[in-house]
């Protein structure tokens, strides 16, 4: 334990200005959310300021804010910005000082303080699970982990309707979905707008000016996104891994260009990607088992599961949520008898996955804050108004289309138990996840060891308290 402390002190001595910037950027946020900072992890979480082998594995800590947000730090134009690592989106979106409705965070990126900022002309609307933001295309010198880009495309929010920003520890969303996703979405939108224009002419009508302008703008956006690569492509990242610490309040880790799944193949199960430019895989054999019995759910044709490191919750089909909600009648209002609840079991590809009750139930604070209202309406609860025992599951039936497969969204609770490597591959055909059980320190372990830990955990569940105003 002494070695990283000495390394951190050395870091401080060598780069005192960056260290001061880091503390100045993060301490006010930490105070706002009541977070105790781990100085060593905080220093290691900053982008490196010296030459490194960008093709070698690089382990970057993710700072835990209230078990609801995990933060990596990115440098933009010399300014240190906290960003949430999000495998559910693929762009770098920044809620900077020029945004008129992005909340009160104290260390926002300010393009006026940067000599390398370039503003674009394209507008785009980005929709997240907690709302949306109207953004303008921009370019900037960006560093994260071991990487640096002198001309990285990002989207600067001009306005936002996102309640989470009132209490967020992050000021950017660092999208780590497959890098072609923005181009696919943009060109599909362009095709839609051109088809609308073509249909008008096919009907023998003159197209209104606004339809022509919309088609032109959609094509311009698609061309711009094709030329300006997403971060994963700019940095030529071949793989990365994410894991969050199992203990309440513990940090996580993002490993760039991770090779652990290749060096320790016996610990991992390969899971092919089935989604079109998303980290979506096949989910089957879904089961809920506990004191009230065992219940199987219809995934015979296979459900879809989206791995989303930016989501504080787990998304499940309505039938799964209702079954567990019934079991909550056996639960004390203070969450002290989690062993009364069932565990979730399913398969991702050929990987067997289980989530114990402390993965999907927690005490919830901060219920009176405005930013908590939207999420709280979707979470069943027991107990008094403050520190309610909440089911941290949301229905996904309304998220997908009726003709599509039932959808699961595996958010932060999943990454607290499973070390997950994302292999981008040269094409969609060889893109895959590699999943292994993780110990409390985010080290991959064997499934046999995981079963032993599950039996221990059944007697020592983690009673987690999450601030609802920080949930994303």
TrEMBL record:
| Species | Alexandrium catenella
Q: Can you say what this protein is called? A: Peptidase A1 domain-containing protein
Peptidase A1 domain: which residues? 70-432
Q: Which Pfam families match?
A: Asp
Please give one Gene Ontology molecular function term for this protein.
aspartic-type endopeptidase activity
* Keyword vocabulary terms for this entry: Aspartyl protease, Hydrolase, Protease
Q: Which SUPFAM superfamilies match?
A: Acid proteases (SSF50630)
Q: Which GO terms describe its biological process?
A: proteolysis
- The UniProt transmembrane annotation reads none
């Amino acid at each position: 334990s002494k070695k990283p402390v000495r390394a951190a002190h050395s870091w401080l001595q060598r780069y005192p200005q960056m260290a001061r910037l880091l503390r100045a950027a993060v301490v006010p946020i930490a105070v706002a959310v009541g977070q105790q900072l781990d100085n060593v992890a905080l220093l290691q979480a900053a982008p490196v300021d010296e030459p490194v082998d960008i093709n070698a594995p690089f382990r970057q800590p993710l700072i835990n804010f209230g078990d609801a947000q995990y933060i990596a730090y990115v440098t933009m134009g010399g300014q240190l910005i906290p960003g949430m690592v999000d495998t559910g989106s693929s762009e770098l979106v920044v809620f900077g000082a020029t945004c008129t409705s992005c909340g009160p965070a104290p260390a926002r990126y300010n393009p006026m303080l940067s000599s390398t900022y370039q503003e674009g002309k394209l507008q785009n609307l980005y929709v997240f699970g907690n709302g949306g933001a109207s953004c303008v295309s921009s370019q900037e010198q960006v560093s994260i982990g071991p990487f640096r880009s002198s001309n990285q495309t990002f989207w600067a929010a001009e306005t936002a309707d996102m309640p989470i920003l009132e209490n967020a520890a992050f000021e950017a969303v660092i999208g780590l979905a497959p890098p072609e996703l923005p181009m696919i979405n943009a060109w599909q939108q362009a095709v839609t707008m051109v088809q609308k224009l073509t249909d008008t002419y096919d009907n023998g009508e003159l197209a209104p000016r606004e339809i022509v302008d919309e088609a032109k703008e959609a094509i311009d956006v698609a061309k711009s996104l094709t030329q300006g690569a997403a971060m994963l492509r700019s940095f030529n990242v071949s793989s990365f891994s994410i894991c969050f610490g199992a203990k309440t309040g513990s940090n996580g880790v993002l490993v760039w260009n991770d090779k652990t799944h290749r060096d320790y193949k016996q610990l991992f199960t390969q899971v092919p990607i089935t989604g079109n430019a998303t980290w979506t895989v096949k989910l089957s054999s879904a089961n809920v088992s506990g004191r009230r019995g065992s219940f199987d759910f219809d995934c015979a044709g296979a459900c879809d599961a989206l791995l989303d490191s930016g989501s504080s919750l787990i998304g499940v089909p309505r039938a799964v949520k209702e079954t567990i909600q019934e079991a909550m009648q056996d639960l004390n209002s203070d969450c002290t008898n989690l062993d009364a609840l069932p565990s979730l079991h399913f398969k991702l590809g050929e990987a067997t996955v289980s989530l114990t009750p402390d993965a999907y139930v927690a005490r919830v604070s901060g219920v009176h804050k405005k930013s908590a209202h939207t999420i709280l309406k979707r979470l069943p609860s027991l107990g008094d108004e403050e520190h309610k025992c909440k089911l941290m599951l949301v229905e996904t039936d309304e998220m997908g289309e009726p003709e599509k497969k039932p959808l699961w969204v595996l958010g932060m609770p999943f990454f607290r138990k499973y070390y997950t490597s994302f292999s981008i591959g040269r094409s969609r055909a060889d893109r895959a996840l590699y999943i292994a059980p993780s110990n409390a320190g985010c080290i991959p372990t064997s499934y046999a060891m995981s079963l032993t830990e599950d039996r221990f955990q059944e007697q020592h569940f983690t009673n987690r308290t999450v601030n609802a105003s920080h949930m994303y």
